[in-house]
Amino acid sequence: MSIIDISEVKPGSHVTLHYRLSLADGAEVINTFIDKPATLLLGAGQLAPPLEDILLGLKVGHHSTFQLAPGQAFGPRNPELIQRVSLATLRENSVIGEDFSPGDLVEFNAPGGGRYAGVLKEVGETSALFDFNHPLAGQALAFEVKIIGIL
């Protein structure tokens, strides 16, 4: 019978942890320290891969904050992901009578299935301008983690 070493985070580990993700100015994006901890399966896409990479090798009880350079966690901002969408396409993907305002996150049906989302920047006569970058793309972030358990 082999003994599984669960003393440190590895790819495929189930990790119970508290974590806080904040912007460089200190504004919190997510904070599990104020509520119950999260349990994540590494490699399942529940965290951005660069954030998962930070967890690899950490042990139960580890508590520290990691500073991530702009674009390190969610990639750089890509100007090609700022695109115009026809108002007809916008209507096809919305609930009847739904009004949109700049700053709204709107989901679209992707060709071939699936969904993708963009932030509405402006609405024109025939089209709307959307930013399909991840909202945290290009941002410097602080990632605080406290490992509670590893399975």
From TrEMBL:
Residues annotated as domain PPIase FKBP-type: 12-96
UniProt EC number: 5.2.1.8
Catalytic activities: [protein]-peptidylproline (omega=180) = [protein]-peptidylproline (omega=0)
Family annotation (Pfam families): FKBP_C
Superkingdom of origin: Bacteria
A Gene Ontology molecular function term of the record: peptidyl-prolyl cis-trans isomerase activity
This protein's UniProt keywords: Isomerase, Rotamase
Assigned protein family: Belongs to the FKBP-type PPIase family.
Name of the protein: Peptidyl-prolyl cis-trans isomerase
Organism annotation: Paraburkholderia ribeironis
